[in-house]
Amino acid sequence: MTGFLQGMVTALITPFSEHGVNFSTLEALLARQEEGGADAVVILGTTGEPSTMTQTEKEEVIRFSRAHVHTKLIVGTGGNCTASAVAMTRTATELGADAVLAVTPYYNKCTQKGLVGYYREICGATPLPVIAYNVPGRTGVNILPATMAEIAGIPNIAGIKEASGNMAQVMETARLIRGKCDLYSGEDALNLPILAAGGAAVISVVSNIVPRDVKILTDCVLQGDLRAANRLSDALLPLVKACFAEVNPIPVKAAMALLGYDVGLPRPPLTAIEPQDAALLKDAMETYGLEIKQ
What we know:
Elements (H helix, E strand, L loop, with lengths): L6 E5 L4 E2 L2 E2 L1 H13 L4 E4 L11 H14 L3 E5 L5 H13 L4 E5 L8 H13 L5 E5 L1 H4 L5 H7 L5 E6 L4 H11 L4 E4 L5 H6 L4 E4 L6 H12 L3 H18 L6 H9 L16 H14 L6
Parallel strand pairs: 1-4, 1-10, 4-5, 5-6, 6-7, 7-8, 8-9, 9-10
Antiparallel strand pairs: 2-3
């Protein structure tokens, strides 16, 4: 299927306190995205740290987000156990998600045939649009272009979030799925070229920090104004680089704390940002023109 999603989507962080999820901060973060023009929000994706959350916490976050956001709500449901991913997909459907984002099954390192079967089972568990998520640097599994072309034939596959970092592969995937499902950028540093190659949307981390600017960049590319898009991209790239100085979401959570949001620390085994990277991040934010609150 095509046309489900277009524009700027934020992969939202999950704010924590010593007692669990910080729902008052989550409400503020969701409001910030709507005010910033986000076309959709992803919760419980990689940036949301679902692998360190309990099932009860995940369900509470879905319910709360559904009640407080008026854009499209996309819920991360993938995992390394197909049965668990199917169950989570059913839960997200029942709790009001508009779509699900299913990362490839990590650690198991399945075959390409296994990937097709995995997405068929998830898609069979819901009438909602399903977005495949390819991030081999984190999962050890890569959705090859020919495999994605087969997955794209599943009726409720809406697209693929591409974060392989391999533009040659992205271009081949785009060629093979065009007209069947959509391509989404899953890597902030490549938002502009992936959109220019026919991508329909970006699913961004840095838009936690500057949602309006990532939205404007996305709109410029989709409207064909590449000159303006390049200016915006040039300004954003140092901030993007700083946001990935350590594994996501360590830097972006530190950035949101610098902006005054009580987001807490990432959960173990992730750690607080290292001092040298914190200095790099703060400098990039100040250079960009952001007001540091602490």
